[in-house]
Structures are given as C-alpha cells and as structure tokens.
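Table S2 (continued). Query chain:
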Amino acid sequence: MHYAKTTAIAVAALSAGAGASIVAPMADTYLQSDGTQAIDTGYYANESTKVIIDFDPTQTNDTRYVFGAADPGSGSGLALSLKQAATGLTIQMSRDRNFNPIPVPSKTRYTATFDCTAGTASLTKYSGTPFEETASYSGPSIATTTNSLPLAILARRVSGGFGQPFIGKLYSMKIFDGETLVRDFIPYGRGAVTGLYDRVNGKVHEKTQGNPFVIGTDDAYVRGSETAPAYVNTGVTPTPDTKVEIDFAMMSATANSRVFGNLGGSAFCMDLHVDKDGSGNFFYSMQDGRTGGYTTSVGVDAARHVFALSTNEVLLASADGTVTNFIATSFPNRTYAKNAQGPMVVFGASNSANPVSGSQFPCDVKVYRMKIWEDGVLVRDFTPFMKNGAAGFLDNCDPDENSNFHGAINANPLRYGGAVESDADPISACTVTPQGGEVPVNGTLTLTASATGATGYQWFLDGEMIEGATGSTLAVEWTKNSRLVRTYKCLAFFDVFGYAESAAAVVTNAPSATVIIMK
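Corresponding output:
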C-alpha cells in the first residue's frame, strides 16, 4: 500500500501505557477520503456536544456527510453535510433541526464549529477570514436527547451501517462533551495502518468500510517514470488560445522526455520537455506543424518550478522566487491558427488523436498542480488524488465524481507522495542506555535515548507520560525508598508518520546507609 509520509509527526501511545497519548502538531497533514470510507467515533452526540472540524470539501454529485449520525427515534441527529446545487457546493449543519444551507466554493479549507449547547454553528475559512457568521436554525430549538447511534466521521451513521461518505480532506476534528474534550482526532499512518488517531484516548480509529486511506500534505504530488511509463490524459486538445500552468520538480532525465505535451505532426503543438543533450536543459516549444516554432532552454535541476506557457506568455518561476520571461525572444510576431490533432498528456506527450496508443517520451517528474485555460476560462485544475488505490489527479473544475478523476491511461501505475517518497520508511530503532541500573544515594542516573533520524522524544514512567520529558536524555533521581522499582520507556518521533518504542529500562535505588545507635 502507498501512502504519503510528511514532515509532520503522528505518534501513538505506548502499548504498555493505556490512556497515555502524545502527538506533535500536524497542521498541514490530512486524511484523504475518496467517497467509500467511514470511521466510527464511538461517541453519542447529545445536547452538550460541541464539534470543531478542519476539512477541505471536493465537489460532489449528491449529498455527502463530513460527519453525522442519524437518529431514528427523534429526527436527523447531528450532521455536517455537503450537496452540489445549481449555485455550487452548499454546506448544511443540523442537530435534529436544520441550519440554513451555506453556499461555499469547493477546494477551500474550512473550520466548522458546531455547538449544541448554544444552538449555534459557524464556518470560517482556514486563513481565519470569516466566511459565514453564525447560521440560524430553520426550525424549532435543539432537542435535548442523546443520539441513539454513535457519530461517524467521513460518512453518516445510519441503522445497519454507514451512508453517503464524504469526498475530500480531513485535517482534524475535536469533540467536546460540555467543557470536556472527549475526542481529538488527527490523521495517522504507520505501515498498513491508516486512519484517525485520538489523542485523548490513545487509540487509532481505522476505516470501517471502503478503500485504504491516503495520508497526504498540501505539498502532495504525483510522480511519473521514465522506465515504467504512465501517462495522464488531460482531455484538452490545445489551440492557439490554450494556456498551461504547471507546478513541478524534475527528478531525472536519461533521454528526451516531456513533462507534458502533444506533438502536432502537421498541426499545432505545445509541450515542455527535457532533452538530455549533455547539459540537461528544459526546452519548451509551441509550433504550427512543428516547422516554425521557437525553442529555447533553461538549466534543469531537481528544484521545484512553476511554468506557464501560452502564445503570449512563457514564464518560469524558480524555487528562489526568480521569474524568467522568455516571450520576447521565444515567439516574436508569430500567428498560430491550427488546432492540435489530439489531447495533451502529462508525464509524456501524445503524438496521436488516441493518447493511449500515441503517448511517448515518458518523464520522471513530480507534479504538484496543473491548470489549463481555454480562451481565458479555466477548464482543468489538477491536484494529486488517490482513488481506489490508484494515484492520479482530481479535476477541481469538474463537479461530476464519476469523471473528475484522471489516472494513468496505461497499465503502469503512477506514484503518490508527500514530503517523503511514498514507499520510503526511514523509521529506525530506538535504544535507551543504560538498560536500567541503580541510582546512587542522593545522586542521579542519566538515561539516554538514541534513534537515527529522530526529530523528538517522549519519556514514560511505568506506562504514564512524563510531562515535559521530551529530550533525548532523562535524569532519574534517587529516592529514599530502596524497594522502589521504576520502569522507563521512550518513544522516538520521526519526520514521517510513525514512532519507535524503546525497550524497558528498569531503575532501582541504592540503599541508604543504616545507622545503629547503641546505648
């Protein structure tokens, strides 16, 4: 299974420490749902429930639930739903009675707050700019009963299962019962285990149905290959009014390869390619019949770039902020009148009206985002996505979930990744030295944890987390109780999802001197 590992950290509690929990911040890490999964929180909503959820919705054909639980006994229960309407995507919050629907743009990150005690709900853009102030109920006041079904995340809990699963990204979710935080969910992935980790109870909640989850970041990418070509059909046949913008990082080039493109034959073409000519440069071209265009180059490296190509714009923005404009010398005084003979593809170029059979020049490149305009209208907005275990792009311009996923058009798979390559697992063992020992009278014994590549530590005493003990060393002080035996363990955190647990270090106390007074 492939899942993106990122610079954020998620760690579970020690198996020996029931109830202990520790997690580092994960602000940009999300759990991606493709409309098949559901997670059971085990929590029953009531009149004192408050929910705060950080999410990013995708367009959908019908009603989908970010979270929810039906209540067959009293009404709709507690829920946050999405629906594709004529005016766009709408969000509706309900607790036995419904709030008024709120029109919202998709592919925007929001924080929703739902307070059953106050009878209020609010929706705020993640940037902190208010998008919609408190919405009002459209019916009578809130019911004061406890839901008969537990709350589900990424779907709605109904009698007999889960329904209408969410499509999009979930960053975090908190559930309060009155003033008490009872669930604190963040994305979690370690090996084959993915889901939401509850920092309150130290438990990982895996899916109850559907495809495996993908853990990603806002810097997720899809990667192609030169040796195992996999192409994505954009479905856009370029014209002289086509504009392409792509955010990418070139990984390697052993031969002539295309980041994207179509090859016109006797028609118009546009592409971005890397020609391994000894210097290893990017070249871009836009031509009628491949006979009169202009080709120039810029040095290639593995840094991330944003490239824009149209008949009146050829820009390359580099990672250091430098923007180079090539239009003055690249395509002076040229007129392009022909349409291409077939669609553009990503991770290569198509030389045919049929990209499945006509694609060639495979490219080892990471693509973070790609946009295509026709006559000034955005017609494709590709972002990395996983669906049914396959990597590809979600087209945010297409509201139809049956057609908005663009995966590989041939047999080879694409790769999905985040800040670390998706199939890497750089989690090393954690060791503690010494492996126990005796604390000298009125002295200390220093335990030292070590794990290659670790970015943080957390110490435990007898299975309970030690507040503030987050360094690689721990000083254990002597106590007068010579019979006291203490067991220490340490978790090492990594810049990926996961942790390493040390073996136990058993510490005893040196007996104090015994003074006998004789009279």
